[in-house]
Design goal:
This protein has helices spanning 4-10, 12-22, 58-69, 73-84, 98-106, 110-129; strands spanning 86-89, 92-95. By secondary structure, it is mainly alpha-helical. The protein has one domain.
């Protein structure tokens, strides 16, 4: 059984792609975003110092999402909280700050939350490779 950090290194590309896919807001209606934000651009935009970020590979992200969705409920919640920093609770999304808050939301001790995350990461690695 691997540790969480080891698995995150092994799954760096699909995991990063899935996280960026999960944080996209293009599914929201245009009225949700502030139109004034489209008018102003920062001076550094388009400069040589900007780091290139590859576009999201949606088929890979959807395949990874299917792996995550098929985890047992407690492991899925722990994995999503750990990776995305969010928790869905009764039709609302809660931003999770730290392992202590994540453990409280799940109703477990912090060490139990850590074990759930490690187990979930191992399950994801096994299913992603298989």
């Amino acid at each position: 059984m691997y540790g969480t950090k080891e698995i995150e290194k092994m799954l760096a590309i699909p995991l990063d792609n899935w996280i960026r896919y999960g944080r996209m807001k293009d599914w929201m209606p245009v009225g949700y975003r502030c139109p004034m934000g489209f008018i102003y651009k920062t001076a550094s935009r388009g400069s040589a110092n900007d780091e290139y970020v590859a576009p999201v590979d949606e088929p890979m992200a959807i395949r990874f999402e299917a792996v995550v969705k098929n985890l047992p409920e407690r492991h899925r919640k722990a994995f999503v909280m750990h990776q995305l920093g969010r928790y869905a609770e009764e039709h609302r999304v809660v931003m999770v700050k730290g392992r202590g808050q994540a453990a409280r939301l799940m109703g477990v001790q912090p060490w139990q939350y850590h074990n759930l995350v490690r187990q979930a990461c191992n399950m994801v690695l096994t299913r992603w490779r298989g």
